Amino acid sequence: MKVFYDRGALACVAMDAVTGPQVFLADFALAGRDPEQARQYLLDHAGEHGNCLAYTPDDSLALTDLGILLRVQQIDDALLSRPLFVMEEWLESEYYCARGHLPLEGAPVSRGWSELS
């Protein structure tokens, strides 16, 4: 798990697809799943509960009102779901959501965020 802070405030908690920890949304495990199965679950959940949906430029799915961003993590030859809990401002920012720019993947430290593993 990685934790990110933006200007001293908690901004993002990223789970690992394999080492977790495991997190659940209404009894559905979000980490380490088949990405399409996890994505479909989020779509169904949003439809049933009226959650706001957003797709990031890299086609990740977010339930913005819950702060859940579902990304994919490659483990050897497999792709697994990797949930992130993200503050709303980051979900609305192309800088943080674009491929290669979410803090896990190399945003410059000068943007005001820091990482703890």
Summarize the structure.
By secondary structure, the protein is an alpha+beta fold. The protein is 20% helix and 36% strand. A hairpin with a 2-residue loop joins strand 3 and strand 4 (28-29).
Report on the structure:
The protein is α+β, with helices and mostly antiparallel strands. It contains three helices and nine strands. It has helices at residues 35-49, 88-91, 94-97; strands spanning 2-6, 9-14, 24-25, 28-29, 53-55, 61-63, 68-75, 78-86, 113-116. Strands 5-6-7-8-2-1-9 form a seven-stranded antiparallel β-sheet. Strands 3-4 form a two-stranded antiparallel ribbon. A hairpin with a 2-residue loop joins β1 (2-6) and β2 (9-14).
Question: What distinguishing features does this structure have?
Answer:
alpha+beta, 3 helices, 9 strands, 36% strand, disordered C terminus
SSE map:
Layout: E1 2-6, E2 9-14, E3 24-25, E4 28-29, H1 35-49, E5 53-55, E6 61-63, E7 68-75, E8 78-86, H2 88-91, H3 94-97, E9 113-116
Antiparallel strand pairs: 1-2, 1-9, 2-8, 3-4, 5-6, 6-7, 7-8
Instruction: State mean pLDDT (0 to 100 scale).
Output: 81
**Global shape:** globular
Low-confidence stretches: 104-117
Q: Helix coverage percent of residues?
A: 10-25%
Number of helices: 3
> How many strands?
9
Structural class, from secondary structure content? alpha+beta
Distance between the termini: 6 Å
Q: How would you write the strand order of the largest sheet?
A: 5-6-7-8-2-1-9
**Major beta-sheet overview:** 7 strands, antiparallel
